Amino acid sequence: MELLRASFTTQYFKPHFHEQYALILLEEGNVDYSYKDKIRVLEGGSILLLNPYEVHTGKSVNGEPWNFRSLYISQELFHQVYRETAQEDYRPVFTQSVLQNPAFVRLFSSMHEYLLSETEEPVARVIARNLLGALVGLCSFEPLRQDWGQFEEKAAAVKAYLENHYLEQIRLDELEKELGFSKYYLIRTFEAVYGLSPIRYTINLRIEEAKRLLYNGMKYTEVAYSTGFYDQSHFIRHFKLIVGVTPKAFC
Question: Domain end: 143, 169, 186, which one?
Answer without folding.
Answer: 143
